[in-house]
Structure formats: structure tokens, C-alpha cells
Amino acid sequence: LKQKSIDSGNGFKVGSVDIPGRAFLAPMSGVSDLPFRKLALRFGASMVVSEMLACREYVHGGKNARKRAEKTGSGPHMVQIAGNEAYWMGEAAKVAEAEGADIIDINMGCPAKKVTSGYSGSALMRDLDHAITLIEATVQAVKVPVTLKMRLGWDDETINAPELAKRAEDAGIQMITVHGRTRCQFYKGKADWQAIAEVRKATGLPFIANGDVTKPEDAASIIKQTGADAVMIGRGSYGKPWLPGQAADYLVNGFYRQAPEGKDFMKLILEHYEHMLQHYGIETGLRNARKHLGWYMETAEEMGIFVDQTMKKQIMTSSEPQFVKALISQAFDSAQIEAA
Ligand SMILES: Cc1cc2nc3c(=O)[nH]c(=O)nc-3n(C[C@H](O)[C@H](O)[C@H](O)COP(=O)(O)O)c2cc1C
């Protein structure tokens, strides 16, 4: 299962940090945890980002936050922080730097009510002066590059990403990622790549385009349409941890390695499952692994491997890891027999 990018050249720099290619795995709370980030890297993702960390909890040594910030051990370590108080942003950035972050990303894109009601995440796009004070505090706190991830604005009437990008650049930000939706869109509708291009024009910083990339060819299209330096892939990698790596290869070579099939795919699922149980412990690991198993079964269906409903339900609900693993193996074995 050793996968490596066909050619990981053609990267770029963020400050003094070398980014070895042009397709990133997006930060996704509850999804892009350490096991998933490691998988994406193994398949050639150019870069991965930690799940968002709430600044105060992180500084106070919250176990959950620390776990989210763990290093993958290969490539630049990019840690994302979220908050709305300059002091805590600076403190969190210092902790991240001390623990080995090569890049610190600020989240101004999260639309979740839990986050925006505390005026963090995308709520900061409603008050750019305050957003800039948070950026300045973070930039001043650390030596490593600080980067910013944002949406297009709060709603259709207040598209202010170009203005925020420009002001953020003046405040010392060194890379910008834009998800082509407003906060009020949440994840609905289509990401507006043209609007991302407008933000690109507002800044000379390294620039990442994000939203609705679901195949390697989309990565080339979004870069062409927006003028971005690189692409970030989120939901498209559900059940497909190889997608950012394929996109990175496609951008360099115009072709990419096929996804693992049959037994290789089964081994990958089992390995990911095992790693999740180790990472979180059995009880939490089992719970957190279920969504990945569900996505893997959807991917299997796209590949023509159909898992029957009863088996699927057992895989998704059983609290007995050995049984789940046996069912996964059985699902693939019976699919092979049917295909033969
Ligand atoms: C389940 C989930 C969790 C997310 N968590 C974060 C997060 O922690 N930090 C962040 O900046 N964006 C987060 N996002 C947004 C993604 O990084 C990305 O911007 C968005 O999904 C659009 O990209 P996509 O169309 O490729 O999924 C999350 C998205 C999803 C679906």
C-alpha cells in the first residue's frame, strides 16, 4: 500500500516553507483527523491541515485540541486556529509554534452556529477591523508564516473577501485560501469559482482555491479559472483519501494513479479502521470511524462492489471491532465471487 506521488515537484513557497505540490487536503473538523491526514499524505497530498482548534481550549491543554493538532510526521505541519480574542489567538499561535507548527492558519470560514455565535469563524467577515486585529496579534506572536482561510463573505450582499484578502496581506498574512461560498450558503448551491478569481486579483500572495473539487480534472479547472496557485479538496475526499494526491499528480503530469481496487481497497479500509481505534481508543474510535466506513461503502458502490443492506447496517452499527473487520473482508470477498 505504499503510495507516493508520481512527481511531487512543481510546488511553491509560503514564507520560507516549501510546499511540495499544488493539491491540499482541506481541514475538516471530525473528518481530517490524524489517521485521515496520514492516509492523504501517503497518497501524495501536497499538504494537509489540522482540524480547527479553539484557541483557549488549545492553550489550556485540552486533550481533544491537542489530539487534533498532532503532527503527521511528514511534510510541513499546518495547524489551524479559530477564535475571536486577540490575546488567545496569539497565545494559541505560540503554543502551536512551540509544538512544531510550520504554518499557522486562521479560520474565518467556519459557518457553524456554534462557532459564529461566538463571533469566530466566518462571523469575523462581518467585522473586518476586528478580523485584522486578530490577524495582527497572531502574526506578531510567532515567527512561522500565518495564513488565512475565508469564505466569499457573510451573504450575497456583503461579498468582502477581496477587501479582507488585501487587508490581511498588509497585516502580514502569507497565504490565502478562499472557499467559494458565503457563510449564509453553508454548503448549499455551487461554489462560485469566478468570485474566487476576483479575490485572487486582490492579492499577490500564494493563493488556494477551494470548493466542489471532486475529481483530479476539477483541480486543473479551478486553478485555470481562478488563477490560484493550488487547490484544496474537502468533501470530495470522503471515502477517497487518494483524491488530493491524484489531483497533485494530475496538475504536474496530466495523469494520475488509479485508486486502489479490490483487495487493496479492502486492506486500506481495514488499516484506516485499525488506526482510528488506536488513535482514539476503541469506544470513540468505533464511533468516529463509522462515517468513514459509510463513505468507503459508497466509494465501493461507485466501483461496482455492492454491499448488501443487512451487512452494511451491521458494519455501521456493531460495537465489536473484530466483527466489523470480518464483515468488511467478507463484503469484499463476496463481491469478488459475484464478479467472477
Ligand atoms: C465536515 C466538515 C468540517 C469542516 N471543518 C473545517 C475546519 O475545521 N476548518 C476549516 O477551515 N474549514 C472546515 N470545513 C470547510 C472545508 O475546509 C472546505 O472549505 C469546504 O468543505 C469546501 O470545500 P469542498 O467543497 O472541497 O468540501 C469543513 C467542512 C466540512 C464538510
How would you describe this protein?
This protein has 340 residues and is α/β, with parallel strands linked by helices. 47% of the residues lie in helices and 11% in strands. The chain is built from 14 helices and 10 strands. It has helices spanning 34-42, 55-59, 63-68, 86-98, 113-116, 128-141, 161-170, 193-202, 216-226, 243-253, 262-280, 282-302, 309-317, 321-339; strands at 12-14, 17-19, 23-25, 53-54, 78-82, 103-108, 146-150, 176-179, 207-210, 230-233. The protein has an 8-stranded parallel sheet with strand order 3-10-9-8-7-6-5-4. Strands 1-2 form a two-stranded antiparallel ribbon. Strand 7 (146-150), helix 7 and strand 8 form a beta-alpha-beta unit. The radius of gyration is 20 Å and the shape is globular. Mean pLDDT is 94; it is low at 1-8. Residues 26-31, 51-52, 80, 107, 109-110, 149, 179, 191, 210-213, 233-236 line the site of flavin mononucleotide.
SSE arrangement:
Layout: E1 12-14, E2 17-19, E3 23-25, H1 34-42, E4 53-54, H2 55-59, H3 63-68, E5 78-82, H4 86-98, E6 103-108, H5 113-116, H6 128-141, E7 146-150, H7 161-170, E8 176-179, H8 193-202, E9 207-210, H9 216-226, E10 230-233, H10 243-253, H11 262-280, H12 282-302, H13 309-317, H14 321-339
Parallel strand pairs: 3-10, 4-5, 5-6, 6-7, 7-8, 8-9, 9-10
Antiparallel strand pairs: 1-2
Helix pairs in contact: 1-11, 4-6, 7-8, 9-10, 11-12, 11-14, 12-13, 13-14
Bound molecules: flavin mononucleotide.
